[in-house]
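Q: I have 195 residues here and want to know how they pack in 3D. Can you give me a structure?
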Amino acid sequence: MAAQLQELPAVVALAAPLILVSSLPSDLTADQQRRAAVAPAPCIGGERERRSESSVDDGEIRWTDKTRYDTARKHALKVWQFSGARVKLRPDSATTVNDLEFRDYRGGTGDRAAVAQYVRDSGTAATDYVRFNRDKMSGRSRAFMNSAASHELGHALGLCHKSGRVLSLMWTDIASPPITSPQAVDKANYNALWR
């Protein structure tokens, strides 16, 4: 768990670990965070944002899906195609190479088990994965699932985790209520990476 969030109650571990928190983890109000979050924010824990760590190939991500969480997948794809988005998110076809696959797995319900995760395969023409843990996703709200899917797609776009000092979809935690789409800082980081 990220050091800046230790004072908050951990309820559900997602990837790396992403947890559910009861309120915004900052001494700033949500309104103050929204106004302040217009410039790119630094990564936490030594992470870096790199195009080479993304699933993007030639300005697009070609995706397939083998998941029961189609609503969350569709939501994530939609919210990352905001006005001005440079990376195109398109379904794979018979004439393209699959860059990203949405897939389910059974990962258990323990405290350390992820709800969802982005798995990067660095091989040439390899497929990366956004994986949903069916054991942890079962029974969750639509907003919770949308948040998890959108967060992991952010990683597939090359974004890293952000500090609780900025309002971000890329926190290591899911807030209550969940953040379900890229915030101003997420778009700023995306635009800095994909200008």
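Q: Anything worth noting?
A: The CA atoms of residues 21 and 175 lie 5 Å apart. The first strand starts at residue 19 and ends at 20.
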